[in-house]
Design a protein that fits this description.
By secondary structure, the protein is an alpha+beta fold. The chain is built from 13 helices and 28 strands. Helix 7 packs parallel to helix 11 and helix 11 crosses helix 13. It comes from Lentinus tigrinus ALCF2SS1-6.
Length: about 550
């Protein structure tokens, strides 16, 4: 998984900042103030406006995603989603009038009009928000960012603004934490010819392992309406040269030349040498979901808003891809002081789900402690990752080994401190608590949304990167695997005249649970704590389990 480099600590007594009073945060010990930002330097600020009826969209999403509902699969159109999310006219007027007083014109940056962006000199931003924007250095990296420790907005505008970013949010961009190892001498048994799974799959993974372990078909997808997409940040790039090497070695049965599209968002790169994350994602979507048209979204903005901008870009399309795989994330603790921003982040995925798209995120690679806890390990509670706690997406954990398949010890999982447990997983989580007893009492939020939802193999995936072969491990590997499974299931549904699977959690936690391989061994320790054990049924290490394609196929064709 890709993850942020540190945790924001010591946030005390925060006011909302959107209630006519000043928002102030104490100095973050991981950042050093350097100097006031140059008055003439340009800064881009995004303002979130309250949607007209987001609760109505949530209810509709659950309705079209529940296989027991008569509305199952009756997804919304682009215009129908926008009608739920668009802000009220009075909010638009209040905010634009306020900006006009400072000679600022905003750009609408979401299809529904609930997000506005302004590009202004720092001096104007300081005057607009009574702020003192300052350049800060991250002690754990060479990066700097411009933030303010406080800001205010007029009382007349407060109820019309949900968040302003970036202001007091010290949320770092994601950085790579997953492990990788160069393969000095590739085993000849897996190069260019049929291998002999599952014995080799105990220590190394390639597409045929996944096909054998999970009954995934190798035959190409046949429906032209099918599609799959992968997100890429931090300048990550995949190349056709590496993809061709991968297919030559691990998919010699494929007769066609693989090809994927690249779409730039926020100025993302569209060419360059292959890098680890993007190469892994592309090779294990295209190498498993054979023949499914695949797009790599290269996002140039590495902040939180790069994720939101990508979702809004997809929402602006008349036809969205049917699956989105994302192997990046953050620490949820970094969002605790700006819950409205976290909610807006999550809500863009509710919009995508309501249009029939399956959104998958990796759960993370540091067990019960999210990746940015420093070496002192002095945290008093478990640290959930973000956005895996969002109830409108599917979080993917990791496993390893065969006969038995067990939880990967690094597989992040736990319970959100921001999002409440959704009803679709209530029974499964309560069953887990009944088995867990008092273990880890006080270390996690018993009423929070539990994650991951599902899991798959995540250790030692052969991957070609810039003409060299590597092993890569992490939930970055299990997520594109599951994206491929969903894409192939969509192919079968589309051929049967059915809609795409869309938001799959309500299905997984009901009819789908019996079509998964329940993982009951292993745990996800961290910082000297034993973590959560994998037990019968759902657990916060491996979720409901790993896929059995044939069983899942029977389920999805019956609903």
């Amino acid at each position: 998984m890709l993850s942020p480099a540190f945790i924001l600590v010591g946030l005390l007594s925060l006011s909302s900042g959107i209630h006519g009073a000043q928002q102030t945060v104490p100095q973050n010990p991981h950042f050093t103030p350097l100097h006031p930002a140059s008055p003439g330097q340009s800064i881009s600020l995004t303002l979130g406006l309250p949607p007209t009826n987001m609760s109505g969209l949530h209810a509709t999403l659950y309705d079209v995603s529940d296989p027991a509902s008569p509305s199952y699969g009756k997804y919304l159109t682009k215009a129908e989603v926008e009608a739920f999310v668009a802000p009220k006219t009075e909010s638009i007027k209040a905010v634009t009038d306020w900006l006009s007083q400072h000679s600022i014109t905003a750009e609408v940056v979401s299809p529904s009009g609930d997000m506005l962006r302004i590009n202004v000199p720092v001096s104007t931003a300081n005057a607009l928000l009574s702020a003192n924007f300052t350049e800060f250095a991250d002690k754990h990296s060479d990066t700097t960012l411009i933030r303010t420790l406080s800001y205010t907005i007029p009382e007349a505008v407060e109820r019309h603004v949900k968040f302003i970013f970036p202001t007091t949010q010290f949320i770092p961009p994601p950085t790579r934490k997953g492990a990788l190892f160069k393969v000095v001498q590739p085993p000849k048994s897996v190069l260019g010819k049929k291998a002999t799974p599952p014995s080799q799959c105990q220590t190394e993974i390639f597409p045929e392992c996944l096909e054998d372990l999970y009954n995934i078909p190798s035959a190409p997808s046949t429906n032209r309406g099918n599609s799959l997409s992968v997100s890429s940040y931090l300048g990550e790039m995949a190349t056709e040269a590496d993809l061709n090497l991968f297919f030559q070695d691990f998919r010699p049965d494929v007769s066609f030349t693989p090809f994927f599209g690249i779409v730039s968002v926020d100025g993302g790169i569209t060419s360059g040498n292959g890098t680890f994350e993007a190469s892994l994602d592309i090779q294990y979507t295209m190498g498993v979901a054979t023949g499914v048209p695949t797009t790599l979204y290269s996002v140039g903005d590495d902040t939180v808003f790069g994720f939101i901008d990508l979702a809004n870009f997809i929402l602006s399309l008349e036809e969205t891809p049917l699956v989105l795989s994302t192997s990046y994330g953050f620490d949820e603790d970094d969002f605790m002081f700006d819950v409205p921003l976290a909610e807006s982040f999550c809500d863009v995925y509710a919009q995508l789900g309501s249009r029939g798209m399956t959104v998958l995120f990796c759960s993370g690679d540091n067990g019960v402690y999210s990746f940015s806890f420093d070496s002192t390990c002095d945290a008093t509670t478990f640290g959930p990752t973000f956005p895996s706690g969002c109830p409108f997406l599917t979080s993917v954990g990791g496993t390893q080994g065969v006969a038995p398949e067990v939880a990967a010890s690094f597989s992040s999982g736990g319970f959100s401190n921001i999002f409440a447990r959704p009803s679709y997983q209530d029974g499964a989580v309560q069953q887990y608590f009944g088995q867990l007893g008092s273990t880890n009492a006080g270390l996690y939020n018993t009423s929070g949304r539990g994650f991951p939802d599902i899991s798959a193999q995540s250790v030692n995936f052969f991957t070609w990167v810039a003409d060299e072969l590597f092993f890569i491990l992490g939930t970055s590997a299990s997520t594109p695997t599951w994206a491929s499974v969903i894409a192939l299931l969509n192919n079968a549904r589309l051929n049967a005249g059915k809609p795409s699977l869309g938001f799959i959690n309500p299905l997984l936690y009901s009819q789908g649970a019996g079509a998964l391989n329940d993982i009951t061994r292993g745990s996800n320790p961290g910082c000297g704590k034993q973590g959560f054990p994998a037990l019968a049924g759902w657990d916060p290490v491996t979720g409901l389990g790993t896929p059995d394609y044939n069983k899942l196929l029977n389920v999805v064709l019956s609903v």
